[in-house]
């Protein structure tokens, strides 16, 4: 079927599914719960099939929830202004300032320079730099930043057909892996934190998430590097010119952005055990927004410009923020209707061993996000998983954390994540290369997520 007709077909299927569920007789479910289920199915179908842009679909809750009688307009719209939205917005603005003044390139070049010029060392340097940057700005932006640097370096290793492939895959995978290490690194993390706070009153701080997720990311990054570097040359290459000197001395704007960035990171990391005793109202969102606003106020030291201006800030990924809002609105609907209880009852008689169910769910979400948006998947799945966690005799924290991380571990296909698609466009890798390496990474990530969740989940409590 022609792609255009396929989209038109899916545009009609979404509302049709809504009507079928909305007018069906569902025993034990209230009108509000049924309306929410019908609306969520429509939204999920359009997200999964990409019948229209994800951001457009993300506006549907504002219309469907009130009109169908699921929850009020006020309750729905308030989630698009949820504090987690502004936490991510603040992180995006800081990331844009880092990009504006090329601080990211200096960080990347210096990490690579210190690692060495062996092929395996250069690959490791790129992966560390990519993962570190991706902890603080979106993995998509990180990959866009690192790809041209990687392409220029790969040209100096033209004699080795393996290096270009390994470097491109290393950049894509490291961008996804690094994003898991912080709450703002990847959208599913924020959605998971929002669902847990909405349903269970559990607040996951920036610090506690890093304590749990950063070791996971480091181990997965090391395994990934080992796998991609197996066929690379080990001797040093005198032809590689990682010319960090060409950037010159660090500029005044770079220094000032770095100071703000380090200050925000310091407050994020130390808030729970240091600053909350002095300022109980201080949270990660306030820290992010204070840092972002400061960037608009501090002169750059070059011309009349500030470190950040609104023309630059317009590049914020508003579509991602809308998807967050939709996901949090869905979670709000689950918490305010009886749909949560109804879904849980459907699983009440499940007799599988809980830890086996946890492994199956982690694996299922991992492979599902190979063909669907991880943000959209997390928005749909996480509220449902919370609903069934008690029926499955599983900790909701374990189930949601495992699912959120799994949704960011899709490594096999170009369509799975923006980093995969971006490096695939380089022409250095074929789809079979990504599938071969990605399948190994998927299996490793599933097992590692499972181990971390059942062993270290107490760190978050």
What does this structure look like?
The model has no long low-confidence stretch (mean pLDDT 84). This protein has 22 helices and no strands. The protein has helices at residues 3-22, 31-49, 54-57, 60-68, 73-78, 83-100, 103-115, 119-134, 139-154, 161-179, 187-200, 206-228, 252-270, 284-297, 310-313, 318-336, 339-346, 354-368, 374-389, 396-406, 418-424, 431-456. The chain has two domains: 1-70, no CATH class; 71-460, no CATH class. The chain has 461 residues and is mainly alpha-helical. The longest helix is centred in the C-terminal third of the chain and has 26 residues, at 431-456.
Distinctive features:
single chain; 461 residues
Main pleated-sheet profile: none
Shape call: globular
As a whole number of angstroms, the C-alpha radius of gyration is 23 Å
Mean pLDDT: 84
| Proportion of residues in β-strands | under 5%
**Structure classification:** mainly alpha
Summarize the topology:
Elements (H helix, E strand, L loop, with lengths): L2 H20 L8 H19 L4 H4 L2 H9 L4 H6 L4 H18 L2 H13 L3 H16 L4 H16 L6 H19 L7 H14 L5 H23 L23 H19 L13 H14 L12 H4 L4 H19 L2 H8 L7 H15 L5 H16 L6 H11 L11 H7 L6 H26 L5
In short:
The protein has helices at residues 3-22, 31-49, 54-57, 60-68, 73-78, 83-100, 103-115, 119-134, 139-154, 161-179, 187-200, 206-228, 252-270, 284-297, 310-313, 318-336, 339-346, 354-368, 374-389, 396-406, 418-424, 431-456. It is an all-alpha fold and 461 residues long.
